[in-house]
Amino acid sequence: xxxxxxxxxxxxxxxxxxxxxxxxxxxxxxxxxxxxxxxxxxxxxxxxxxxxxxxxxxxxxxxxxxxxxxxxxxxxxxxxxxxxxxxxxxxxxxxxxxxxxxxxxxxxxxxxxxxxxxxxxxxxxxxxxxxxxxxxxxxxxxxxxxxxxxxxxxxxxxxxxxxxxxxxxxxxxxxxxxxxxxxxxxxxxxxxxxxxxxxxx
Length: 201
Description:
The protein is of the alpha+beta class. It contains three helices and ten strands.
């Protein structure tokens, strides 16, 4: 059926696809011992034998390949850092009171050593006055209870703190803060107690 239009003509077409085929002859079949056997070509392969040989692979040593620029470049290593803050010492405020200055005298200036004046050199009236003043200062009942140690001249009167005997030498310790005057010191010893008795004249 043909339909005609002013510009298009449509015809009915039947499509057929043809595929060429070829017949293949089957392989020949032989009868062996009553059994059919297909005749197929057999190719002999090389036989390595029963032993199995494993060849180790040939591995070369590894070589690091680095560029010339990287080989000559210095790299900075970063290490962990610890920042310790500066220690601060906190203490409660201390109030210091101003000390009062005081005069001090060396030990060598506080000690004086004097030798006794021989009684024969002293006038009889002065010697009698010295012995009487010494006996009154001892407050003993009998003059026999008191023994004369010596009469020592040129001693710091009014500034004597203590006295002691070093053999026949009188050791005088002066008192600080006192103004001495030239005086004579009569020294005796109590026979019963060996205590020293002094009196300034």
